[in-house]
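User:
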Amino acid sequence: MITGKGVMFVKIARHLAGAAVACLVFVVQGAVVYLGLLAYAIMANADTGGPLAGPVLVLLAGVVGVALVPLLFLPASVVGEVAAKSGRLLAKLLVASAVAAVLSMIYVFLVAVATDVPIVKSVLASLLGVLAVLGPTAACVGVSHGVRKIRPNRQAREAADGMAKVG
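Assistant: Predicted structure:
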């Protein structure tokens, strides 16, 4: 059985796996948003943004996703896990989503205020920021919870090995 520092490393690894998936989901969202904007531009007979628009948007989403891992996804996931001591996935998701929503609103609003964006547009940008992080946050919590559930229990492994030796 893993004890002491080993438990801490397992927990850290679980949350890092969840954060990596959250970053990947954020990048995929960037690609989907680009495809939606491209379809809109084609249907509206507008400028499509050039050949580098898609890769630049996906690269930007990747950079923002990497920045959001320590600033948003990991704290939300950890707070969700601590708050839901029962270990229920739904409770973790609800708490982590609320924490991520609050953090994203604060970050987007601060950036909007720092760049002199009018207050109405700042609020709209904050709400869009909340929508942008809910999917990756759910993926982060789901993966960190799922890794905990699929990690083989050492006692069960040893029992299976003992049964294999008997049979």
